[in-house]
Structure to design on (734 residues):
């Protein structure tokens, strides 16, 4: 691996070299505890999604606060979490292909694994592999509650698949999940609420139909950050799987303000070629733009005009026109998940000073 | 580090687990040779920009073909190149902070290093550091040739900076660079060709003005994949900095066919929720959409609809409706560079089988 000249703990944030992904630890911990407190009060469990933070450090904080386990999207992410001691991991995605299934079975020997399915072929492949490895793994059915991504249709088709799982050797039927991803970022709370209640109802009814068919449904999992306090009030939902709430991002802050922004990219002015233009060292390789350009925080008059791979082109006026090369600016990314995936480390800040450099071990774990 | 179960050399491409960044070696090597042949014929040197491939493996192939050295955008990239055995490195960007300047000096102690400069203050900082570390640092004055990013204005301001650089201890003034990155398609579009010539005029008249003022100018560095035929044919330009030609991407292929597409992302169908839709395991964390949605190649009738963080939505018509869960498809990214930057390794294929797995060593090296 390459060199990393990290600053020592105690270094003031202004002295960090850039671009740097900085996390306000008090804010992130506040977000973790706020969600958990809400869930405790509403008697629903939390199994946070690690796709956002991709790091056992944060998973451990979520578990310490009371989460019952951790969700992730990929087998390689699960490997990172299991090897760091996370005892129960739910992959909220279909694991297809012999190589990945073999890895999943290997993991099932060191952690309690649960995986989502949506087809009988996949159930058959998982069952054969589990038997071959002598492992037992938990299986939940992903139900399409309206997002139209993966998932079986609610009701009878899902019940049929559940029966097949319950009969399959090596598999333990655990229940259902239905992520209402098409609603989590809806800006209008009333619409979000009405539509989410309808979507989650389909999941709960499907779970009830399974119970009527004699199946034991322990897990009914749903919700993202934008719907936690809607889905979490529905009777029959046993657990929530939000991810983004931990750090928030510019996009989610337009949906709800229950959680505070904890994550910024610290950048630096590298060139001041014109009075109204400042160039920074943070481009597409350190801030994602798939949900729009980042916003400059803590300074007025600075607007992102464009990002090339390694440069930010910033239009400056007023206060921001005073920026000089070497000055630092914090940017709030619009999409936290894909921005974090560009970085190798978090710089954890408390009271303006570096507390810890935290590796993003799940970064690039796409298989 | 986390586990990666890599497939062995000799594995057929269709047995690779996904998402995987695939490079066809024969094609990439032919692209390298073609650009070098052009440079040789035109009597201009080639100093490829490695921001695109981020890997000493490819840099060594470019140098073996005849390149005189490499360009990088960041000090951390320069570190990776120096450790990978590259002896001549030009940082085609402004390096302005104390930590980065110290690191640059450390690289300069191991390799021949030059850096772009656009302010006198930066020049002074570099000179002081070079003396302190006992190294000599090459400097090119960065001229704004209408890209309106970094760079001093052409003519007198650039010459004034060049004069300062010429006399400074620890500094070896080499010449000027001016990257005309705002231009696409100069090889085919007459307007773009004219804009290239006009932009390069800014650089050339600056060079003449410096020489008239008695400042010797050794290096005149410019040119990208879009402009190499025009810029490379200009007498006074001494080196070309093209980068993307090595693999090409969907965006470059729209404007030119001088080089052949060498890179795809291999993905797997993980769900077939409806007859006209497939869900892939490739999302924003394995293929960037900063220049548009990827294109599916080799599967007629399949068209990209949308990308989530870890899922790709594909519309299916005709033949493509035969796609089953577990089938693999190749995606051509529109933006190669920001796609490579989210992968940890290249899967290098020759004649359909894996020849080598090569780390994207400078991935995330944006400091
Ligand atoms: C299946 C699944 N569950 C949960 C989440 C977390 O949602 P959020 O980031 O909105 O909190 C995601 C995010 O994409 C997801 O795909
Ligand atoms: C300064 C500089 N030189 C050269 C290049 C390479 O250009 P291309 O990728 O178009 O070949 C770039 C790319 O962004 C660049 O920024």
């Amino acid at each position: 691996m390459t060199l990393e000249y990290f600053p020592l703990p105690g270094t003031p944030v202004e002295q960090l070299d850039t671009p740097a992904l900085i996390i306000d630890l008090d804010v992130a911990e506040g977000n973790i505890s706020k969600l958990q407190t809400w869930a405790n009060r509403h008697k629903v469990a939390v199994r946070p999604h690690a796709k956002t933070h991709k790091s056992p450090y944060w998973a451990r904080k979520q578990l310490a606060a009371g989460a019952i386990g951790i969700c992730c999207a990929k087998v390689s992410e699960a490997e990172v979490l299991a090897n760091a001691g996370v005892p129960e991991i739910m992959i909220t995605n279909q694991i297809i292909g012999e190589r990945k299934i073999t890895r999943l079975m290997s993991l099932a020997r060191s952690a309690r694994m649960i995986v989502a399915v949506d087809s009988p072929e996949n159930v058959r492949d998982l069952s054969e592999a589990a038997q071959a490895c002598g492992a037992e793994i938990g299986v939940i059915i992903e139900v399409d509650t309206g997002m139209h991504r993966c998932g079986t249709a609610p009701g009878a088709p899902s019940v049929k698949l559940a029966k097949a799982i319950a009969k399959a050797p090596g598999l333990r039927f655990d229940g259902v999940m239905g992520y209402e991803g098409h609603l989590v970022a809806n800006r209008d709370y009333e619409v979000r609420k009405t539509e989410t209640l309808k979507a989650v109802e389909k999941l709960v009814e499907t779970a009830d139909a399974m119970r009527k068919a004699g199946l034991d449904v322990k897990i009914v999992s749903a919700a993202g950050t934008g719907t936690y306090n809607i889905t979490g009030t529905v009777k029959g939902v046993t657990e929530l799987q939000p991810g983004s709430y931990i750090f928030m991002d510019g996009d989610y802050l337009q949906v709800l303000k229950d959680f505070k922004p904890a994550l910024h990219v610290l950048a630096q002015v590298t060139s001041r070629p014109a009075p109204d233009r400042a160039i920074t060292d943070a481009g597409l390789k350190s801030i994602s733009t798939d949900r729009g350009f980042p916003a400059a925080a803590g300074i007025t008059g600075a607007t992102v005009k464009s990002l090339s791979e390694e440069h930010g082109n910033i239009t400056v006026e007023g206060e921001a026109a005073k920026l000089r090369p070497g000055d630092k600016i914090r940017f709030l990314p619009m999409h936290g998940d894909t921005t974090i995936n560009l970085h190798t480390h978090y710089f954890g800040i408390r009271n303006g000073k570096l507390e810890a450099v935290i590796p993003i071990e799940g970064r690039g774990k796409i298989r | 580090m986390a586990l990666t179960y890599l497939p062995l050399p000799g594995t057929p491409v269709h047995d690779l687990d996904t998402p995987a960044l695939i490079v066809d070696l024969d094609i990439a090597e032919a692209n390298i040779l073609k650009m070098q042949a052009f440079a040789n014929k035109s009597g201009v040197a080639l100093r490829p920009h490695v921001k695109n491939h981020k890997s000493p493996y490819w840099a060594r192939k470019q140098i073996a073909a005849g390149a005189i050295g490499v360009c990088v955008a960041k000090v951390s990239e320069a570190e990776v190149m120096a450790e990978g055995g590259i002896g001549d490195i030009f940082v085609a960007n402004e390096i302005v902070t104390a930590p980065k300047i110290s690191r640059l000096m450390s690289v300069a102690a191991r390799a021949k290093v030059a850096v772009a400069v656009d302010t006198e203050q930066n020049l002074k900082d570099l000179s002081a550091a070079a003396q302190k570390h006992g190294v000599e640092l090459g400097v090119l004055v960065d001229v704004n040739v209408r890209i309106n990013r970094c760079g001093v204005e052409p003519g007198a301001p650039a010459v004034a900076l060049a004069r300062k650089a010429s006399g400074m201890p620890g500094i070896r003034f080499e010449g000027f660079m001016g990257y005309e990155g705002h231009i696409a398609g100069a090889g085919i579009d007459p307007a773009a060709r004219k804009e290239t010539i006009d932009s390069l005029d800014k650089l050339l008249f600056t060079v003449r003005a410096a020489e008239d003022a008695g400042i010797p100018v050794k290096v005149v560095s410019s040119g990208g994949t879009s402009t190499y035929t025009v810029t490379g044919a200009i007498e006074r330009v001494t080196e070309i900095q093209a980068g993307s030609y090595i693999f090409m991407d969907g965006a470059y292929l729209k404007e030119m066919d001088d080089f052949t597409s060498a890179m795809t992302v291999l993905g797997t169908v993980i769900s077939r929720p409806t007859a006209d839709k497939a869900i892939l395991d490739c999302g924003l964390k394995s293929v960037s959409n900063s220049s548009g949605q990827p294109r599916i190649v080799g599967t007629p009738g399949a068209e990209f609809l949308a990308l989530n963080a870890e899922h790709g939505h594909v519309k299916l018509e005709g033949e493509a409706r035969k796609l089953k869960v577990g089938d693999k498809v190749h995606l051509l990214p529109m933006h190669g560079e920001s796609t490579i930057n989210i992968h940890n390794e290249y899967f290098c294929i020759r004649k359909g089988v894996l020849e080598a797995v090569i780390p994207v060593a400078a991935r995330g090296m944006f400091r």
